[in-house]
From TrEMBL:
Gene3D superfamilies: alpha/beta hydrolase (3.40.50.1820). The keyword Hydrolase applies. This is Alpha/beta hydrolase fold-3 domain-containing protein. One of its GO terms (biological process) is antibiotic biosynthetic process.
Amino acid sequence: MATLETSTHVYKTVDGLSLEIDIFKPPTAQKDSIVLLHFHGGFLLIGDNAAFQPHWLINACHHRGWIYAAASYRLLPEAKGLDILQDTLDAVHWVNQNISSKIIIAGSSAGGYLALATAAHPSCPRPLALLAIYGMLDPASKRHIHPGQPLMGPVDDVDKSLSEIDSAMQSGKVLDGYPFPANPLTDQRIKWIRTMHQAARYADVLTRCPGLAQRIAIEGTSAIPEEYRILFPATFGLTPSFPPTVLLHGDRDDLVEFDQSSIVAEKLRALGVDTYFENAVGQDHGFETKEVIDLDAGDAADGNVMEDSLRRVIAVLEKHVSSG
């Protein structure tokens, strides 16, 4: 396979940061080629373009003459949810104006949430398709509005951790990347992620509306202020005209619940949206990033169930590209 041409571009300067898009261009790419724009995971608090790259997706794009792009964005809790969404929208607009209007918007984990929210935004150029990989899609789901559900084990000093998060929100020191730590259980930002799960504070931190998750639990999603509803795409952003959507999730995911994807798939199908949901049987969170996978180099008949799931996802994307 020929070498990819790689380049990095600043798509936006904000808060003293230069937000970048990494471009992986195959030699067979044509003018106005398909671009798959991917947003990284990390629960919106950690991660960067270099962490847990989906090599299976990069390689699949390469074989098909598609351009793979990965965009950085500002991180919680220092940045606001609306600011992060504006970053991802600006990344799509940059690709649309500078590379191609034929875009697949994709993301993994928290990046899947951003892909969904971006595609649902009224100012977003319509993509050929949306791909959400084990997406943390709904910050108003039961998991995120009812306290007491730890992630990676309970946090003992929740109040102290919440105070640190509040201080970070006021600090003005915004980040656009944070490498995945070698020892997650001793890392402060991982502790913040665990605290925000255990104390059910994602809705509060996303919107900067203290107590919002609790109000959603009591009053329902009508408690979400109008100006923040674009941050809750699974509740307010799905319409019959939503772009074709592909969701991939392992049914043994212990970090992001399987129903984050299955419920969104049900909602989209009920609206008549072209929806494909791939259940990666027996797989956990990040299952396809644990090795370098090239789906086109192996034998499709070798019985690898996980790779067959990924091949089906690519086949559906190819269908949307050809019909778009």
